[in-house]
């Protein structure tokens, strides 16, 4: 269920690093806990984000939750499709419903994140 090419945070975000770009999203677990997602607030391209700090939020019928950046860098792209169809996060959180792409300023930060096996073990503990 959790792609082995992704790295994961304890706050239930993922990042897929390809070259110097990290694609960021929320995990299947996060969307399941949130319930029906009705709104996504994301930064604009050019925004600088820091690992572990909020980069936006997701609003569901249950609550509003911050999205924490798993990596530091500059936002280069935002998934515009989510503005008109935030429910895509419930349908495909590890695929088409990615949130932002970030040009990494500190690629080594990904070493602090969990691989898929560690994340699934973490979910078993929480």
Report on this model:
The strands form two sheets. Strands 1-2-3-9-8-5 form a six-stranded antiparallel beta sheet. It has a three-stranded antiparallel beta sheet with strand order 4-6-7. The model has no long low-confidence stretch (mean pLDDT 97). Strand 6 and strand 7 form a beta hairpin. It has helices at residues 28-34, 81-84, 88-91, 116-125; strands spanning 7-8, 13-18, 21-26, 37-41, 48-49, 54-60, 64-68, 73-78, 100-104. The protein is built from four helices and nine strands. By secondary structure, it is of the alpha+beta class. The protein has a single domain (7-109), classed as RNA polymerase II/Efflux pump adaptor protein, barrel-sandwich hybrid domain (OB fold (Dihydrolipoamide Acetyltransferase, E2P), Beta Barrel), CATH 2.40.50.
What labels describe this entry?
126 residues; alpha+beta; OB fold (Dihydrolipoamide Acetyltransferase, E2P); 3-stranded antiparallel β-sheet; 9 strands
What is the strand and helix layout of this fold?
Blueprint: E1 7-8, E2 13-18, E3 21-26, H1 28-34, E4 37-41, E5 48-49, E6 54-60, E7 64-68, E8 73-78, H2 81-84, H3 88-91, E9 100-104, H4 116-125
Antiparallel strand pairs: 1-2, 2-3, 3-9, 4-6, 5-8, 6-7, 8-9
Task: Summarize the model shown.
This protein has 126 residues and is an alpha+beta fold.
* Global outline: globular
SSE topology string: EEEHEEEEEHHEH
Radius of gyration: 13 Å
The number of domains: 1
Q: In angstroms, what separates the terminal alpha carbons?
A: 17 Å
Strand content: 25-35%
- Low-pLDDT stretches are none
The total count of strands amounts to 9
Specify the number of helices: 4
Predict the CATH topology.
OB fold (Dihydrolipoamide Acetyltransferase, E2P)
SS class: alpha+beta
- The CATH superfamily is RNA polymerase II/Efflux pump adaptor protein, barrel-sandwich hybrid domain
CATH class: Mainly Beta
Report the biggest beta sheet as strand number plus sense, adding barrel if it closes. Answer: 6 strands, antiparallel
What is the residue-averaged pLDDT?
Answer: 97
Architecture in CATH? Answer: Beta Barrel
Identify the quaternary structure here: single chain
Spatial strand order of the main sheet: 1-2-3-9-8-5
| Portion in helices | 10-25%
């Amino acid at each position: 269920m959790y792609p082995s090419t992704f790295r994961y945070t304890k706050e239930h975000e993922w990042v897929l690093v390809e070259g110097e770009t990290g694609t960021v999203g929320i995990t299947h677990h996060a969307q399941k806990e949130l319930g029906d997602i009705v709104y996504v607030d994301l930064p604009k391209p050019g925004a600088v984000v820091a690992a572990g700090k909020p980069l936006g939020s997701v609003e569901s019928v249950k609550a509003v939750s911050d999205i924490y950046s798993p990596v530091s860098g500059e936002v280069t792209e935002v998934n515009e499709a989510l503005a008109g169809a935030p429910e895509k996060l419930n349908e495909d959180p590890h695929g088409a419903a990615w949130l932002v792409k970030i040009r990494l300023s500190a690629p080594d930060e990904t070493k602090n994140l969990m691989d898929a096996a560690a994340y699934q073990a973490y979910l078993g503990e929480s």
